User: Which sequence fits this backbone?
């Protein structure tokens, strides 16, 4: 059973205690999405022993999404059977008890997983934005083939952008209608998205400080662990996405994007347009690193045309106009830059919300 009500003495963030962080996560963040996580997070917030165990992790790794994913990973690995059974049965009380028990018995493994891993979104929803933008990049550069380089690729699911089917709320569709991965997105502008198909993809390259390899059992389990339990539709879509990715695994390059990009460009055949994509990645770069990233694109463009498609918060992607939108306003700008020799043409071609689930297309095409 959860222990007595406890307020950890250690503040997290702006004077919020760990107990408050877990209670807020349960009652606000998880409440509408995962009743199981709501129950577990609130129980953890009320257990002095559990909070003490969480404090064994470095401060930046104590967040509920990290610790709950680490516990979920142990459950999926067969190392916390009571927790796995409680999640499978959608039994919130049993899950709360089992989560606390697992945390207390297996504090070291939980902390080790939290330290080693980053939480992952594992979603191809971004493809609804990327597909028309990459097709538009190819049109502008006059390319018949593209080589995709996804920077901050995580598990590289964006690199299957041409192999999923996308249906938009205005009746348009793009991609492969027979793909096992079918996505939907809402268009919130009167302007339709371009109906053009993407040219053939001749290279799929992912760049990340810590890429996730869907063909590796531990990495694949971690992607599953990052999903909140009790969401069968999302779990089924992730399985389909991972299975699709595993049929044509991308080339994953580990390292800092600024250092690795020249190697990535070199791997795109000369007759294809390299299209670099970044989705909600550049906010993790300092401003200086963002500018060096742009410089890398410019260097590559000395010898061939290069395109960059971005979906980033307002003002995050260097050179991409902000359309006068406020920074941190909740939506993101879809950017398209084509670099050729010394010429850079950068445009905001749309806005999107909810990581691409809603989008407004702005560009003439
Ligand atoms: C917030 S995640 C976004 C992942 C993915 N693009 C998406 O849309 O969900 C940022 C990713 O960028 C990676 N990353 C952060 N800094 C990086 C760098 N300097 N070079 C390469 N990858 C980096 C992280 O490891 C992480 O996978």
Assistant:
């Amino acid at each position: 059973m959860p222990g007595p009500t406890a307020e950890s003495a250690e503040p997290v963030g702006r004077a919020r205690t760990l107990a408050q962080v877990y209670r807020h996560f349960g009652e606000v963040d998880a409440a509408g999405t995962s009743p199981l996580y709501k129950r577990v997070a609130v129980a953890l917030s009320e257990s002095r022993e559990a909070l003490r165990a969480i404090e064994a992790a470095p401060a930046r790794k104590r967040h509920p999404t990290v610790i709950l994913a680490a516990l979920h990973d142990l459950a999926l690995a067969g190392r916390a059977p009571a927790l796995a059974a409680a999640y499978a049965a959608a039994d919130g009380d049993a899950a709360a008890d089992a989560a606390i028990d697992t945390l207390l018995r297996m504090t070291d493994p939980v902390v080790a997983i939290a330290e080693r891993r980053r939480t992952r979104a594992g979603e191809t929803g971004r493809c609804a934005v990327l597909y028309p933008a990459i097709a538009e990049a190819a049109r502008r550069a006059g390319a018949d083939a593209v080589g995709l380089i996804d920077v901050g690729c995580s598990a590289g699911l964006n690199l299957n952008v041409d192999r999923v089917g996308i249906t938009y709320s205005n009746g348009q569709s793009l991609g492969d209608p027979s793909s096992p991965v079918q996505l939907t997105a809402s268009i919130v502008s009167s302007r339709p998205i371009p109906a053009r198909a993407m040219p053939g993809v001749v290279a799929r390259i992912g760049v990340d400080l810590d890429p996730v390899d869907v063909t590796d059992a531990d990495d694949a389990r971690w992607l599953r662990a990052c999903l909140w339990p009790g969401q069968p539709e999302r779990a089924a879509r992730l399985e389909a996405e991972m299975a699709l990715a595993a049929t044509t695994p991308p080339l994953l390059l580990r390292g800092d994007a600024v250092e690795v990009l020249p190697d990535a460009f070199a791997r795109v055949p000369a007759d294809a347009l390299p299209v670099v994509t970044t989705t909600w990645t550049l906010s993790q770069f300092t401003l200086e690193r963002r500018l060096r990233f742009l410089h890398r694109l410019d260097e590559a463009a000395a010898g061939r045309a290069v395109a960059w498609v971005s979906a980033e918060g307002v003002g995050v992607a260097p050179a991409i106009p902000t359309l006068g939108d406020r920074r941190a306003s909740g939506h993101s700008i879809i950017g398209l830059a084509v670099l050729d020799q010394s010429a850079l043409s950068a445009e905001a071609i749309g806005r999107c919300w909810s990581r691409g689930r809603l989008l407004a297309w702005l560009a003439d095409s």
